[in-house]
Amino acid sequence: MLGTFTYSNPTRLHFGKDSLEALKEELPKYGDNVQLVYGGGSIKEIGLYEEVIAMLEDAGKNVFEDAGVMPNPTVEKLYGGCEIARGNDVDLILAVGGGSVCDYAKAVSVSAYCDEDPWEKYYVRMEDVDNDIIPVGCVLTMAGTGSEMNGGSVITNHATKQKIGHVFGDNVFPKFSILNPELTFTVPRYQMVAGIFDVMSHILEQYFSGTDDNISDYLSEGLMRSLVHSSRIAVENERDYEARSNIMWAATWALNTLIAKGKETDWMVHMIGQSIGAYTDATHGMTLSAISSAYYRHIMPYGLARFVRFAEVVWDVDAAGRSDEEVASEGIERMETWMREIGLVMSIAELGVTEDMLDGIAEGSFVMEGGYKVLNHDEIVGILRESW
Amino acid sequence: MLGTFTYSNPTRLHFGKDSLEALKEELPKYGDNVQLVYGGGSIKEIGLYEEVIAMLEDAGKNVFEDAGVMPNPTVEKLYGGCEIARGNDVDLILAVGGGSVCDYAKAVSVSAYCDEDPWEKYYVRMEDVDNDIIPVGCVLTMAGTGSEMNGGSVITNHATKQKIGHVFGDNVFPKFSILNPELTFTVPRYQMVAGIFDVMSHILEQYFSGTDDNISDYLSEGLMRSLVHSSRIAVENERDYEARSNIMWAATWALNTLIAKGKETDWMVHMIGQSIGAYTDATHGMTLSAISSAYYRHIMPYGLARFVRFAEVVWDVDAAGRSDEEVASEGIERMETWMREIGLVMSIAELGVTEDMLDGIAEGSFVMEGGYKVLNHDEIVGILRESW
Predict the structure, then answer these.
(1) Residue-level pLDDT at A213
(2) A41 touches chain B (CB under 8 A)
């Protein structure tokens, strides 16, 4: 049942090959001081950095660079970013990069004027924002996290071995995001397929919850069918614009709150995956793919009807004359076949997880209660062992 | 291909049984003078009028009533509404009713400060708005038009026999809309099923265009599957909250620009339907249902592959060992069966169309060019005759 909710998504999206041009109409809306946030320098290799700098200069902005955002942005990096923002009276944080860069920009946005430790307040205690928020804009170079149109922001604390995501409200959503699918062409294949599975996992973790009939599930099925279709084309030809644009758009709509409406949502794959990430620094999407097979086989008996529907609608499994268990199992098998086909990591050992980490990873997995089965410690360890 | 576009939808939606409460948080955002727009008084019968008036009074607003908005709002009514808005320095137009009431509110919103005849400027010449716009909020009592989250506004000029819709930009979208599915329970069945087909037609007219692979088509298929499913439940039990809430949410997403992304879009059924409406004042959704069967059979040969996909994905037609024509035809047959099942009007004669109107209706149908076949006058007359 859809229930009672508010839907508000104020992010303005500029999509397409020429979408960077929209920066010219967005920049004048903000003050002169721009904090330019990016990662390891790949945006320089593809010429994007120079383009953005030229547009910032043409708009008369003072640019304060904040480079070196890592794939799993750390709390120490966040503190540094806050100093840049406060120290330069920043009017706009412009994130140029993938989901981590967007996540980090939002973290700085809410933390710069926080009068206590923002890690404690916004990530450990998950409080609402009650201080000034610096507007964020994004130029996205990777598809996956959906961070370009939501309030999600994941920060990692290596000292405490915690990787925590806070989903902030719509006052923290990027004011605008620029999505040019061509910018994703040069993303390494490993990152591309990890991003694709991040999208798939976002959809799965909302879809596999609840028992009733909800339009969100139908939209999720459409998104999954499109994503599976386009991902197969993209791994054949990474420069297929149509496939990459569909994947980029799917990523946005998989996690911008729409398909969660009326859903309890599961999120355990993300919780376990993030804990693996805190221990190994492995690529986010691969931490999800490595455990998904074992996770879904484990919860299947508790949500069998939904798994049957998943098999039939998303994977075109023919149910005629077969038991629910058989149909549901074939759905998961077809998903696994697709996962192997596009080159996802399906073993946590490959990600650097070692035997001695298992208890810690399970302990660090925040247990959510919206899915078909509320997991206990031993079940999480069991799923990790099955994912070896 | 998704192409280049901007997606921005600033409407804040409050959904659910208790969503009227959200009016208390929305009203303080606007000035004191509120133009209360509604239709023929059904909102008084269900007690909604009293509730809204009480909330407006509690918020200290001066209320200027603008009642009697007709199902097809006229240009004369629009002129009157502009006088109320201008004469009372209105700060917010609050539309309480169905799609026509919302459409009319948006028309007044852009027209009140137009320095020439708004009918000529915004409907006949379709110009962009360059004058002050009065903010609009909606409390929706019917599901169908999608007017609660878009810039669409249809106005009828009986003198010239024109019914014209202008799709305004996001600066004209309602600032907020309140969607309580329970308010739709008391809508007469005829209006309910007409609304359902309006939604279906919005999706169909975006889906049946283009040949390439676009995520919008997958989302459309999900919406159609959900709508067909929920509509069957709603005609059995009009008070099934789950079905009515899914239908209401489908209506919003069928026409809030999302599923048009990357699509050329057809819209000929709406063009012909609106022309029928201008001649007969018939219920909008029924003007669409009455001609859809003949229309889709007429264009099927020109977009056969899409009709085959429609049959398989939306109507679960088994394609094995059959020709594309057979599969596509069975898809349309199943749609017709569903249309009869839920009680739609499938004959223009039943709507009051007479032989002498046919040429005029065809002449008044604005010919769009995004679909599989650009229609000429004789083809439109032919479709009308097939719809007898």
Answers:
(1) 84
(2) no
Nearest to A8 among B13, B181, B246 (CB): B13
Distance CA A62, CA A33 (A): 5
Q: Which domain holds residue A303?
A: 189-386
Main-chain phi, psi angles of A140, to 5 degrees: -90, 135
Domain match, A110 and A240 both: no
The domain that contains B119 carries what CATH number?
3.40.50.1970
Q: Is B212 on the interface with A (CB under 8 A)?
A: yes
In a domain, B47, yes or no: yes
Nearest residue in A to B251, CA atom: A215
Residues (pLDDT < 70) of chain B are none
Contact of B14 with chain A, judged by CB distance below 8 Å, is answered with yes
Q: Which H or E element spans position B45?
A: helix B42-45
pLDDT value, residue A265:
95
Q: Check CB contact under 8 Å for B250 and A2.
A: no
- Round to whole Å and give the CA distance between B171 and B175: 9
Task: Check B2 against A14: CB less than 8 A apart.
Answer: no
Instruction: Supply the ipTM of this predicted assembly.
Output: 0.94
B218·A226 Cβ contact <8 A: yes
Q: Would you call B226 an interface residue with chain A, using a CB distance cutoff of 8 Å?
A: yes
pLDDT at A242: 96
d(CA A238, CA A253) in angstroms, rounded, equals: 21
Going by C-alpha positions, the residue among B56, B237, B229 that lies closest to residue B139 is B56
Same-domain status, A20 and A127:
yes
Instruction: Say whether both B95 and B217 belong to one domain.
Output: no
Q: Chain A: give the shortest CA distance to residue B218, in Å.
A: 5
Contact present, B20 and B53 (Cβ < 8 Å) = no
Is residue B286 domain-shared with residue B308, that is, in the same domain?
yes
Size of interface A-B (CB pairs under 8 A): 124
Is there a contact between B166 and B126 (Cβ–Cβ < 8 Å)?
Answer: yes
pLDDT score, position B211? 85
Q: Which residues numbered 349-378 in B keep a CB inside 8 Å of some CB on A? A: none
- Per-10-residue mean pLDDT for chain A, 388 residues long? 91 97 98 97 94 98 98 96 98 97 98 98 97 98 96 95 93 98 95 97 97 92 98 97 97 96 96 95 96 98 97 95 98 98 98 97 96 97 98
